[in-house]
Request: fold
Amino acid sequence: MTFSILDSARAEPVTTAPLLSLEDVRIDLRPGVPLVEALSFDVAPGEALAIVGESGCGKSLTSLAVMGLLPKNLKAGQSGKIVFEGMDLATASEGKLRGLRGNRLAMIFQDPLSALNPVLSVGAQIAEVLIAHARMSKAQAKARAIELLGEVGLPRPDLRFGDYPHQLSGGMRQRVTIAMAIACDPKLVIADEPTTALDVTVQAQILDLLTEIRKRTGQSLILITHDLGVVGEVADRMIVMYAGTVVEEGPVAEVLSRPKHPYTAGLLAARPSGSYVHGGQALSDIPGTVPAPDARPEGCLFAPRCARATARCREARPPLDRAGARAVRCFFPVDGALA
Amino acid sequence: MTRSLELVNLSLHHPTPAGPLRAVDGVNLTLNKAETLGLVGESGCGKSSLARCVVGLNTPQEGSIVVGGQALGTSAADRRAAAQRVQMVFQDPMGSLNPRHTVRRSIEQPLKIHGRGSAAERRARVEELAAQVGLGLHLLDRYPHQISGGQRQRVSIARALTLEPELIVCDEAVSALDVSVQAQVLNLLTKLQRDLGVSFLFISHDLSVVRYVSHRIAVMYLGQIVELGDAESVWAERRHPYTRALTSSIPDAAGGMRGERLTGDVPSAVNPPSGCPFRTRCRHAQAICAEARPALTDDGLPHLVACHFARDFAPLERESPPVQAATGG
Reply:
């Protein structure tokens, strides 16, 4: 059988059931020390969801849990469920997961140089995916790999097929990993900081490409990033993670213009804007750092860094309050647009 | 006004099998006392090579470097003297701090090397520096792996300040930090400049950060300065097509990057394009761009631009600055 991205996108019926659903997922470092906890969110078919937060907030662990790629000493779903197309991935066998990965579920990593095999040509690496998952012959796989290299914007893809990763620029390498990810027309692509290692001009090209592929194929995208600008460019909806859990969720335009959680508001305000030396002001930073997993506070996880925190925040963890498309985990959410 | 740094016709070539790689190609820059000069460009444009020349880690083939009124020499004695005038803060403090030295020892080391003060005086100076950069005294006896990334960068800054240099070269000093910590470190740098009058050569690929901290901005492409001037003038006018492309590539929290997109990558500096270095990626390139290298000149403009058609581009003010739109002003 041959794969055509256009055919399968047309054949897919429109459904309202989520493609991926995480329910109360917890990942423990050791008993009693959760890295990720009370994590729940959905991804709808065709949707681009951004997961935002600083280092150590559990963004990447979440994506690895979905892919079934957590380190051996960690285990997702000691409580909670990760349901993808009706199957609970947390309890699925390794064989089942292997059938999904690269096929229905695909991932793009931050550093393409370490995601690619240095001693195999980039074309052969894409063809390998097609031979393994789409059961193509070598000749079919080569032809399709060249097509894919063209689709992700490599000039003269027939000549680039035989290139090794070190012969390509960083941007071109990331295009190759994107071609590998979309080779089998997955339903969900997870991109973990896909442009963080790239120059801003190349980042813009890659973000355009991710959006173009998603619009063309109807794939869902989970974009993990620390950059709120990138979120604004690419995603429909976003969740903000802090210290291993979701603190805010909602449509991108709403969350970025009217953040409810003090952490989201703090992240937005900390971005440099204007000019300090030409009459600007000091940046409003968030004091302190994200607490280590074994040093998380009893009450609200953000309370030690929060200017709005009261005794109540230090005693009890706020629940994730939902109202329509928005959700916030805070007893005293920020009200209205930021000043 | 006294100058902290003066670069005259600076060129640095790295030998490669395919011929010399022109990392820095005839750069002229000055930096005034207590001023911040932001240097932006993509990777491979020569920013870091230039920085390494300024602190003496690279020896340029041509041109001169004057730091704090004295030429940067190459002898060991010259190097030692220069270390008291110019210091550097690197991107990754984990890589630039000795993992086996405590914070205290790292900050104190320059004083020992330069034979400054008694043990008690050095101790007092280290504690004074720690206070200046906002490091708690309890952190002084920790090792780099025991403190956070933001704290490590504060240690690097304290160490750079130890000998009271005129000039600190910050090479992507905040790029590896999370945004909330980045804001803390940027606030620290502006405060130090206010309190101590230190100058910064601030190198970054992030134009919003550079615009925020800099008095003046230099935009670098393939080893050459293509636009140079007052930060607000460069930002508001953006006369060089490369500067425009850089700014229109900044992802915008308000959604929808606008304007010109660059295609392709920076060409090889071993075999740069003839004429204007940017012409291979420039939408506006004409025949003359392949023939003649445009001079960096103001030619009736408010700042210096190296483009044959700089005067044809109308001044540009971004319609809605990303962050202000996102935060409601």
Chain B touches chain A through 55 residues (CB under 8 Å). Chain B has two domains: 1-85+165-329, 101-164.
